[in-house]
């Protein structure tokens, strides 16, 4: 059995209006039928543009959000064994609380040990993530962004979790600090045998840390594959376009930049059938009436007309109009 199984999970957020906001006038389809599994010891990267639903999926995986439908199964005690590292090392730490007490939160909530043993554990965790244990009584404002993210990582590790869901853990940090935090996460994975779900919009960071990568678009997974396979042979036109725009393009074999038409459509009324069809350079009539399923073995993609190996994908031209569903 996989460590974590996500089966046809949907998470919709109601949009309310009227007197006292009682009337539901629509729904944001943040996550819309996602299935995937996470194997023990691996890092599954999840990439996509902002608003694609990857952070909502992360919160569903950790139990922070109740799912609207579908099922999440974890091989263990989800409350203890699944922890989260948040994006914003500034906003996720209470500025009026001391670092030691912040890191100890999960131990206090789960009634672990005595005050003295918790203090020892916190100092051990601080050393583990490269913080000076003598700074136990300092406040968040006395730390740099990178150090604050180390505090967030120490807090996530307090209960010896098996799965850590990292939601854009380095995107708020200076580029010079990002590598340090990413390398710390990799070292901790080796040392502690952790499993990661690593959410990010930066494809090069995801490539560096992930064994497998899932690409999300408008609430759905459109492609999932082992990291190198996905970066070398993307089959979904959206993945190919993302890669063409990213710095991960191999300098020896530069990809022409594929320019997508328009913005990401609203998740309130996503295009019907293939959600990518209004922007897709390969869209045909079938894409507007029949939803492509995520198919394949090992390398899966959801597309009727996938990119063929060696195919030169062109930028989208005006053509098929988006059809809201
Ligand atoms: Fe493009 Fe059609 Fe594939 Fe969707 S199904 S990604 S519109 S080619």
TrEMBL record:
Domain ABC transporter: 4-243
Source organism per UniProt: Herbidospora solisilvae
Keywords carried by this UniProt record: ATP-binding, Nucleotide-binding, Transport
Pfam families: ABC_tran (PF00005), oligo_HPY (PF08352)
Biological process according to GO: peptide transport; transmembrane transport
Domain of life of the organism encoding this protein: Bacteria
Family: Belongs to the ABC transporter superfamily.
Entries under PANTHER family matching the protein: D,D-DIPEPTIDE TRANSPORT ATP-BINDING PROTEIN DDPF-RELATED, TRANSPORT ATP-BINDING PROTEIN
UniProt name for this protein: ATP-binding cassette domain-containing protein
Entry GO MF terms: ATP binding; ATP hydrolysis activity
